[in-house]
């Protein structure tokens, strides 16, 4: 059965898409970039809650997929003792995802174990913003909550794997996302 993999940017999956053994072919450029092999369709959502929800709805309407997976970058929001436990470049399954935005108090339970994720509609970069986000989750992204919400609407099981790509405004998040792509590419179960 076909499963869907959602990434916010093509940087997050660029190395996997180039591995000849995975046999990905680009099948769509608009309104969202999509690649497909025998078992997976990879959809680039774009960054943010609105882009992610739009891409999920588009994919659910255009591809008959069973389960969904979100692979991508996340920032570390918990300073102090949490910072010693989670390091740049580590990847984690996500157990639950919540939203930083007002009037989105729901928490989606995704797995029995893993790290907690909070999604925001904007970049969480200052120490104050990270401290506030840390009240809701250990990691922060900009798409997870929307993807979990739409997965429920469409009756799809979703799981998430996030890699810590930043922990301060001084990080080179773009270089770290490229490293993320290199690290995730050889993980066959994500792509085949």
Blueprint (SSEs and pairs):
Layout: E1 3-7, H1 14-18, E2 25-28, E3 34-36, E4 40-44, H2 49-62, E5 68-76, H3 81-85, E6 91-99, E7 108-109, E8 115-119, H4 127-133, E9 139-141, H5 144-153, E10 158-166, H6 173-184, H7 188-191
Parallel strand pairs: 1-4, 1-5, 5-10, 6-8, 8-9
Antiparallel strand pairs: 2-3, 3-4, 5-9, 6-7, 6-10
Helix pairs in contact: 2-5
Polypeptide structure, described:
The chain is α/β, with parallel strands linked by helices and 192 residues long. The protein has helices spanning 14-18, 49-62, 81-85, 127-133, 144-153, 173-184, 188-191; strands spanning 3-7, 25-28, 34-36, 40-44, 68-76, 91-99, 108-109, 115-119, 139-141, 158-166. A 5-stranded mixed β-barrel has the order 5-9-8-6-10. Helix 2 runs parallel beside helix 5. The longest helix is centred in the N-terminal third of the chain and has 14 residues, at 49-62. The model is unreliable at 80-84 (pLDDT under 50).
Question: Which features does this protein show?
Answer:
192 residues, alpha/beta, five-stranded mixed β-barrel, Rossmann fold
Distance between the termini: 11 Å
The percent range for helix content is 25-40%
CATH topology (level 3) name: Rossmann fold
Q: What's the architecture, going by CATH?
A: 3-Layer(aba) Sandwich
Tell me the major beta sheet: 5 strands, mixed, barrel
Number of domains: 1
At the fourth level of CATH, the homologous superfamily is Nucleoside phosphorylase domain
Please state the average pLDDT score. Answer: 91
> What's the overall geometry?
globular
Annotation field: number of helices: 7
**Poorly predicted parts:** 80-84
Tell me the strand percentage band.
Answer: 25-35%
H-E string:
EHEEEHEHEEEHEHEHH
Count all strands and give the number. Answer: 10
- What is the CATH C-level name? Alpha Beta
Question: Which structural class do you get from the secondary structure elements?
Answer: alpha/beta
Radius of gyration: 16 Å
